[in-house]
C-alpha cells in the first residue's frame, strides 16, 4: 500500500468528517498539511475530553471486583459498536456520492477501503469510548501500573474495534451481492438494522436481568472470562488464550476481506450505486392540485433518496434506547400521588432534549435539498410555507420516535394514567421546542454539496459534540429532577412548588417560541 496516497485519502476524509470545523480552520488560514494536523489534533483533544468525562464516572468503580458489571459494559458498547458500524459502512460506501471522484485516480482498492473504514471508526469511537475506560479501570484497579494498563487497554480496544468493523463490512458487502438486495435495497438494510437493534436490546435486557450489580467477586460468564482475565491477570494462561483468539479472529476476517471484498470493491460499488440511481429514477405519477400535498410528497421523496431514515434509526434511536433500558430498571413506585405529575412533566421535557439531536430528521430536512433550495427560492411560492411543511414533516417524524420510546418507558416503569399523560404531553411540547432549535440550526449550517449524510450529522462538532451534548443534558436534567423531587417529597407545599415550575416552563416556552418566530421565521416573510 502506498502510504502517501493513503494519507492523502485520509486527509480528504478528515475534511469531510467535520465540514464546519474544516471551514473554520480554513478561515484562519490553515491549508494543506497544517490543516490536516489541526484536524487530527482536534480529534485527539476530543478524545481527551471524553476520557475526562467518562473517567470521572467510571474510574471510581472497581470493575476488577465486579466482573458482571464488566460484562455489562462490554456487551453494551460492543452491541452499540456493531449497530453504529453497520449503519456507517452502508452510508460511507453505498449511500455516498464521492465514488466517481476516486475512479479516475491511481488509488488502490485497499487504500480506498481503509480510508473509508477509518472514517467509520472515527464516527463510532465517541459512542464506544467507555469501553476503553472500562478496560483501563479494570486493569488499574487490579493493580497494574498505569502506563501498562493504558497500553494494554488501548491495544485490546483497537483490536476489538477492528474486528467489529471488519465483520460488519463483510456482512454489509455480502448482503449487497444478493439478488434481494439489488431489488429491495432499503428494505434489506432497514431489516438488517432492525435485527441488529433487536439483538442489541435483547442482549442488554439479558445482562440487566442477571443482576450484575449484586455482590463482589461474583462469577463471570465463561464467554467474558478470557477478556476479563486479560486485564486482571494479564500473564495467566487464560489471558494468553484470549490474545491468541483475538488475533486469529482478526487475521481470518482480514483474509476474507482481502480475498472476497477488496479485489471487486470498485466494480461492486459502481454496480450498487448505478442500481440505486436506476431505482431512484422510478416515480409513480400522482395528480396533486394542492400545493401543500405537492411539497409533502417532495419532502418524503427526499428522505427516501438520501437514505437518512436508516441513519436516524441507528443514531437517534439505538443509543437513547440503550440508555433507557439501562436505567429503566430503577424502581419507581407505581402509586405516586398526583403531586408528582410536575416532576414527570419536566422528565418528559428533559427526555425530548436528550433524544432530539443533530442526527434526527428535523435537524437535516433543509440540507437534504442540496442545491434545490435555491431553485425553490426562485419559484413564485412562499419560502416560509415551503420551510414550514418541511418542519412539520420532520417534527411529526420525531414525535413518532419520541412517543414510541416514552411508551416503552411507561410500560417498563408501570406508570399510572396521570403520570403517563404528563410525560406524553411534555414530550410532544418539548420535542417541538427542541425541533425549532435544530431546524433553524440546519438552515444556518446548511451544506449543499455533501456526499453522504454523515457529513450532515457531523456539522458543529461531529459525534463528539452529539455525545457531549447528551451527557450535559442528562447531567443537568438529573440535577433538576432530583432537586424538584426533593422539594416535592420533603413536605413542601406541592401546589406552590408545581405552580412555580409551571410558571417557569410557560415563560421559557414563550421566550423560545417568540425568539424563533422573530429570528428565523420572519426572515422568510
Automatic annotation (TrEMBL):
Q: Give TM segment ranges.
A: 43-64, 70-96, 117-140, 146-175, 187-207, 237-257, 308-329, 341-363, 392-413, 419-439, 466-488, 494-513
For this UniProt record, the keywords arranged alphabetically read as follows: Membrane, Transmembrane, Transmembrane helix
Q: What is this protein called?
A: Uncharacterized protein
Supply the source organism for this entry: Companilactobacillus paralimentarius DSM 13238 = JCM 10415
Amino acid at each position: 500500500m502506498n502510504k502517501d496516497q493513503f494519507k492523502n485519502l485520509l486527509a480528504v476524509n478528515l475534511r469531510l468528517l467535520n465540514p464546519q470545523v474544516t471551514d473554520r480552520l480554513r478561515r484562519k488560514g490553515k491549508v494543506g498539511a497544517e490543516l490536516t494536523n489541526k484536524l487530527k489534533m482536534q480529534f485527539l483533544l476530543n478524545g481527551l475530553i471524553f476520557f475526562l468525562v467518562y473517567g470521572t464516572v467510571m474510574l471510581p468503580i472497581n470493575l476488577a471486583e465486579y466482573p458482571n458489571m464488566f460484562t455489562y459494559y462490554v456487551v453494551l458498547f460492543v452491541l452499540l459498536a456493531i449497530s453504529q458500524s453497520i449503519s456507517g459502512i452502508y452510508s460511507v460506501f453505498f449511500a455516498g456520492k464521492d465514488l466517481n471522484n476516486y475512479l479516475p485516480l491511481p488509488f488502490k482498492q485497499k487504500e480506498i477501503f481503509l480510508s473509508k473504514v477509518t472514517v467509520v471508526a472515527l464516527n463510532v469511537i465517541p459512542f464506544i469510548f467507555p469501553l476503553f475506560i472500562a478496560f483501563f479501570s479494570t486493569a488499574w484497579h487490579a493493580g497494574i501500573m498505569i502506563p501498562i494498563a493504558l497500553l494494554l487497554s488501548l491495544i485490546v480496544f483497537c483490536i476489538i474495534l477492528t474486528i467489529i468493523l471488519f465483520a460488519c463490512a463483510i456482512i454489509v458487502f455480502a448482503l449487497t451481492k444478493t439478488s434481494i438486495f439489488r431489488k429491495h435495497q432499503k428494505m434489506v438494510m432497514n431489516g438488517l438494522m432492525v435485527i441488529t437493534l433487536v439483538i442489541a436490546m435483547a442482549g442488554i435486557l439479558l445482562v440487566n436481568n442477571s443482576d450484575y450489580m449484586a455482590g463482589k467477586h461474583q462469577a463471570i460468564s465463561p464467554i467474558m472470562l478470557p477478556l476479563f482475565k486479560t486485564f486482571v491477570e494479564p500473564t495467566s494462561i487464560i489471558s494468553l488464550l484470549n490474545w491468541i483468539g483475538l488475533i486469529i479472529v482478526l487475521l481470518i476476517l482480514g483474509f476474507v476481506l482481502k480475498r472476497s471484498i477488496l479485489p471487486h470493491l470498485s466494480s461492486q460499488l459502481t454496480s450498487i450505486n448505478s442500481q440505486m440511481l436506476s431505482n431512484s429514477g422510478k416515480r409513480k405519477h400522482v395528480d396533486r392540485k394542492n400545493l401543500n400535498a405537492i411539497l409533502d410528497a417532495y419532502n418524503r421523496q427526499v428522505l427516501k433518496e438520501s437514505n437518512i431514515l436508516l441513519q436516524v434509526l441507528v443514531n437517534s434511536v439505538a443509543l437513547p434506547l440503550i440508555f433507557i433500558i439501562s436505567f429503566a430498571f430503577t424502581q419507581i413506585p407505581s402509586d405516586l400521588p398526583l403531586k408528582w405529575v410536575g416532576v414527570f412533566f419536566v422528565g418528559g421535557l428533559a427526555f425530548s432534549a436528550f433524544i432530539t439531536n443533530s442526527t434526527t430528521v428535523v435537524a437535516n430536512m433543509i440540507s437534504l435539498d442540496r442545491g434545490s433550495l435555491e431553485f425553490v427560492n426562485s419559484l413564485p411560492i412562499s419560502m416560509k410555507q415551503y420551510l414550514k411543511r418541511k418542519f412539520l414533516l420532520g417534527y411529526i417524524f420525531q414525535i413518532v420516535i419520541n412517543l414510541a420510546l416514552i411508551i416503552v418507558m411507561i410500560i417498563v416503569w408501570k406508570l399510572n394514567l396521570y403520570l403517563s399523560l404528563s410525560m406524553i404531553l411534555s414530550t410532544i411540547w418539548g420535542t417541538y421546542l427542541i425541533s425549532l432549535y435544530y431546524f433553524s440550526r440546519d438552515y444556518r449550517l446548511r451544506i449543499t454539496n455533501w456526499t453522504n449524510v454523515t457529513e450532515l450529522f457531523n456539522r458543529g462538532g461531529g459525534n463528539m459534540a452529539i455525545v457531549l451534548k447528551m451527557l450535559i443534558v442528562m447531567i443537568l436534567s438529573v440535577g433538576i429532577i432530583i432537586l424538584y423531587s426533593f422539594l416535592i417529597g420533603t413536605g413542601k407545599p406541592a401546589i406552590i412548588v408545581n405552580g412555580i415550575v409551571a410558571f417557569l416552563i410557560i415563560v421559557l416556552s414563550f421566550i423560545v417560541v417568540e425568539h424563533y418566530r422573530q429570528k428565523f421565521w420572519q426572515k422568510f416573510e
